[in-house]
Fold this sequence. Notes:
The protein folds into 4 domains: about 20-140; about 170-265, Serine Threonine Protein Phosphatase 5, Tetratricopeptide repeat; about 285-350; about 360-465, Alpha Horseshoe (Serine Threonine Protein Phosphatase 5, Tetratricopeptide repeat), CATH 1.25.40. It is about 85% helix and about 0% strand. The chain contains 18 helices and no strands. The longest helix is centred in the N-terminal third of the chain and has 109 residues, at about 65-170.
Amino acid sequence: xxxxxxxxxxxxxxxxxxxxxxxxxxxxxxxxxxxxxxxxxxxxxxxxxxxxxxxxxxxxxxxxxxxxxxxxxxxxxxxxxxxxxxxxxxxxxxxxxxxxxxxxxxxxxxxxxxxxxxxxxxxxxxxxxxxxxxxxxxxxxxxxxxxxxxxxxxxxxxxxxxxxxxxxxxxxxxxxxxxxxxxxxxxxxxxxxxxxxxxxxxxxxxxxxxxxxxxxxxxxxxxxxxxxxxxxxxxxxxxxxxxxxxxxxxxxxxxxxxxxxxxxxxxxxxxxxxxxxxxxxxxxxxxxxxxxxxxxxxxxxxxxxxxxxxxxxxxxxxxxxxxxxxxxxxxxxxxxxxxxxxxxxxxxxxxxxxxxxxxxxxxxxxxxxxxxxxxxxxxxxxxxxxxxxxxxxxxxxxxxxxxxxxxxxxxxxxxxxxxxxxxxxxxxxxxxxxxxxxxxxxxxxxxxxxxxxxxxxxxxxxxxxxxxxxxxxxxxxxxxxxxxxxxxxxxxxxxxxxxx
Length: 500
């Protein structure tokens, strides 16, 4: 307020000074005009007297005549002076008008600024209160939307279950059929979001039938169904099925192993502890590869401490002793040492597997990758070949497509290294075709890593044009053969459907 009073006082003082200067200026102009008028009059009188004195025959002019002569002149002079004063005062009036307008505008701006400064805190407070109120309302709306969303989710579960219950009831009579139904349900790897949601609804309906006891089976049926669910990453459902199976077959080692591992993958800590304790109190002489592997996997997924490491390695030794031809024992040893940073011991476990066993699909694949990253391409190619050999069984423990891809990568790297060392490309044609063949086989077996297509093009460009053309023709023939085979199956299916 003091600052505002001081500003107002300064403005008043400035205005007073300006008015004083304007009055002084007007008086000066008036004095100058009167002086000019008197000067004209004096000059006229002096001229008249001189004329009377100097002329020998003075002109006889009466006072009346003289007044007639002088009055218009004096009047004209006075009119001129007053006109001049009027114009000057009009100019001063315009200037004062402009100055007054400017001062009023400045005063108005000052008043507006002062008003804004006074109102601004209140406006800010009002805005904050409004924003807070709006946020509270939005939060209430969000909470209500969550309630609605949860209700919709429950509704979808119920409706989805009801919609599919009749279908599931009609087609599935036991747990074994449920497992086959699930495998067929997920036969299409690429599914839309709606299809994925529909699958889940079907699984919920199916799971409810298993839980209620409407469909049953033996221990293998429950194990197979839970394994199928786990393959599709439905670990919670898999854990539920194994728990139901254990209630019927509490001594089954497969179900007990599944229960511990799938509960671990589903994040059910209490069930994991229960499953591990039950496994530890079961005689290891009846353990199979699944019990050993799942038990060690759960330990290695836990805290990295000496107790877990000791228990895992002791379990590995029992694994090797009780199942001497099982490569998974060496794979478990490799993963345990790798977890604790003992990479030489981990690699030795894989090498021991190749030295002692004939079928080493997992160990050889892992060892091939280690050799490849080290630049030992000959050993990498040999281990990848061992992995392909080890996959020649009904249920291979590793990806055959990955083994062909790893072998192709190692051949590819060896080719480019020998070329960089000065070896002629012409001497590498056979090796190039071999690597290309491995890449193509990997793609056909479903190992669709993006870099394989890139490396395939690079290798093909190393071949002469005529060999590239032959490769293109071979690809075309292969595709035609596959198309004919597919059409044949389709015709058989259509014929069978018509017969029915």
